[in-house]
Amino acid sequence: MTENPSAQPTPSAPPAPAAPTVTAKWEDLGLDPKLVELVKKFGYQTPTPVQAEAIPFAVEGHDVLASAATGSGKTAGFVLPTVNRFMGKKGTLILALSPTREIAQQTAAVFETFGAPLGLKATVLIGGANMRLEEQALGEYPQIIVATPGRLCDHLERGNIWLDFIQTLILDEADRMLDMGFADQLARITESIPNSRQTLMFSATFPPSIEKLARNTMYQPKEVKIGVAAEMKPKIDQRFLRMREEDKVSELIRLFKQEPGTVIVFARSKDRVSRLWRSLHSRLIYDATFLHSDCTQAHREKALADFKAGTYRILIATDVAGRGIDVDDVAHVVNFDLPFEPEDYVHRIGRTGRRGRTGKATSFVTDRDRELVRRIEKLTGKKDIEGAAPSEGGESLERSGGRGGRGGRSGGGRGGSSGESSGGSGEGGRRRRRGGRGRRSGGGGAPQGGGSGPST
Ligand code: ADP
Ligand code: MG
């Protein structure tokens, strides 16, 4: 990329990575003054560390591979340099891929904020929205497309869109996209974009699968890895409560009553999210809403907006729906079910204790969760699983099922395991299936029409 390798180093040579102790300034990142002004006016006083390090590389046209924790400001980290590069230009030049509809919409909103005043238009292509409307929007040649991989593949297959003119490809929340089984779609999409493109990959974590994806899609990427500074480390009071499956609902209600403030409750499958919501409703808990990928787009948007606005204090969600949504200020995260992957535990509890605040995370643990707990302890270095011995009575989610709160205790439920057989469908099933599918690209693997992704 250097035009004149024999030339003397000039003052405009790439800046050394920002020293983490010095607060960086927007003026120093190579951004156009107009953009700097917009950013400050918007209220971002100084760049976050990942922005300070990634933006200069991206502005210079390098590929950038950046990892930084959730909430560290990665979105503006790719939006600002991209807007900087393409302001005033025409044609569909930028493609940003997001794992979920919510993240796609949030990303598009950030592109609007900083791009629209400089003449850049963004369109979102996501499952659950009207395909025809999306086609129409594409007809207006927006410079920026923000899409979920599944939906974009649908449009590619229908010939609604070509990617020959894309000059910057953004893979946001890349770890999540791989987790969700989008590898084939990503391969299909990257093959349709010229190799001369710039690729910006942002991820909260950096597992080997990300390195592999980077090797396959990027050209000599500049790597930016931001650790978490001690004072910014979320202060989260983590508790693990041991209990029987059939006591979970009562325990949850007890927590709701005991503690004020907003709560996100994570359950492991769409089915369990719905059941839990019904079960709470039947027990007269009305200030809860829920979110998973089978909900209609309208419902998803409303649920999130209502939760953010405080209309509902409680949000019940699956991992996929819960990840990446930018809800600030959640007082309490409850793992009604432990996640299958320890990394998801970290993501979930990251919804609380954000930006220096103190938060609370409570995980319900049954006897079946031993192995998971061990892996979570290993990852987080935490070792104080507490909880009394399982108590008597109660009802499992499966058996109560919101059937008018009758509390069907039929079937002589012994132990916590009986209620969990449905775990094989939903998210658990997805992960298992993914293993066998391999990396065959172009296998027509676009998720079915309505969904922006596999089954969460
Ligand atoms: P990530 O993608 O890393 O999880 P986001 O891009 O969603 O994080 O940003 C998290 C929050 O931080 C958002 O509410 C965003 O508006 C805010 N934010 C981003 N950059 C800055 C900044 N430089 N100063 C203040 N707030 C910022
Ligand atoms: Mg993000």
In CATH, what is the class of the largest domain?
Alpha Beta
CATH topology of the largest domain: Rossmann fold
Give me the Rg, rounded: 23 Å
Low-confidence segments: 1-20, 386-393, 399-456
Major beta sheet, strand line-up: 3-4-2-5-6-1-7
What binds here, in terms of ligands, is: adenosine-5'-diphosphate, magnesium ion
Into how many domains do the coordinates divide? 2
Structure description:
With 456 residues, this protein is α/β, with parallel strands linked by helices. It folds into two domains: 39-230, P-loop containing nucleotide triphosphate hydrolases (Rossmann fold, 3-Layer(aba) Sandwich), CATH 3.40.50; 235-401, Rossmann fold (3-Layer(aba) Sandwich). 37% of the residues lie in helices and 14% in strands. The protein contains 17 helices and 13 strands. It has helices at 33-42, 49-59, 74-86, 101-115, 131-139, 149-157, 174-179, 183-191, 208-217, 248-258, 270-282, 297-309, 319-322, 342-349, 370-380, 397-400, 426-437, and strands spanning 64-67, 94-97, 122-125, 144-147, 168-171, 198-203, 222-225, 235-242, 263-266, 288-291, 314-317, 332-335, 358-365. The strands form two sheets. The chain has a seven-stranded parallel sheet, sandwiched between helices. A six-stranded parallel sheet has the order 8-13-12-9-11-10, with helices on both faces. Helix 5 (131-139) links the parallel strand 3 and strand 4. Helix 2 packs parallel to helix 3, helix 3 packs across helix 4 (101-115) and helix 6 packs across helix 8. The two termini are 41 Å apart. Residues 1-20, 386-393 and 399-456 have low confidence and may be disordered. The structure holds adenosine-5'-diphosphate and magnesium ion. Magnesium ion binds at residues 74-75, 172-173, 324.
